[in-house]
């Protein structure tokens, strides 16, 4: 393994994000073990969060060095849904940033193999923007024998770096976070003719309107829908005299749209970014995105138009 540069030209001052796809145990070991060894030799905290099989392989290869790791944790215990998982991840990153100058992470998001975990790719994408100034290297592991082809395609589009055999290189398929998110959100089409539509000038009207629309079939999601729409209407009324609500059901999902005549969303990724303690904006979108099962933002046009999707 002479000539291997596990982190290439990374100088430890900014975020580096690599998507490593492997098919064999040997490929995994040859990539991860030098990465860990380099970090330990430099005195950097090294954290490993991976599935049981990967941790077993690494424990055998690393031997006594496992005790030198800052963390060696089961990834299976981390999944709490996209928003809650990212919230916990963000909290731990901020703690590290306050205590050490730089660090490196080996992470296997095992939940990408589950249907409810595949939206994690959106959070992986947004991480490139919201963690750009954090000084750590994230080596994300993806088992090509276990994950669907669509997930592996998303890995290439959400990670700026890939492994070239002796050093990381730029990923040709990488996309800007906003572009990636637009490509994977629900397709934006015309409202159905039977959609209920209401113009509101305060959040109270919005709450009452949504509650009136929700029949018994959606009672279980009523609280989530009302709170999410409340937050988006507050945002809309900051930039527009009135907000327009629309509500309908499709394919066993409740859809609620909030539209305004303001300047539009300056950053469509905001709802995927945990708001900082001193951050003034973005909390309403973060809350709404977490309450809904899916979200879509209209491409272009006047003002902002957001659709929230709720499953039964």
From TrEMBL:
Domain (Histidine kinase/HSP90-like ATPase) ranges: 204-308
Example of a GO MF term: protein serine/threonine kinase activity
Residue ranges of every copy of the MEDS domain listed in the record: 17-160
Parts of the chain that traverse the membrane: none
Organism: Micromonospora mirobrigensis
Matching InterPro entries: Anti-sigma-factor_SerPK (IPR050267), HATPase_C_sf (IPR036890), HATPase_dom (IPR003594), MEDS_domain (IPR025847), RsbA-like_anti_sig (IPR047718)
The name this protein goes by in its record: Anti-sigma regulatory factor (Ser/Thr protein kinase)
Highest rank taxon of the organism: Bacteria
Keywords assigned: Kinase, Serine/threonine-protein kinase, Transferase
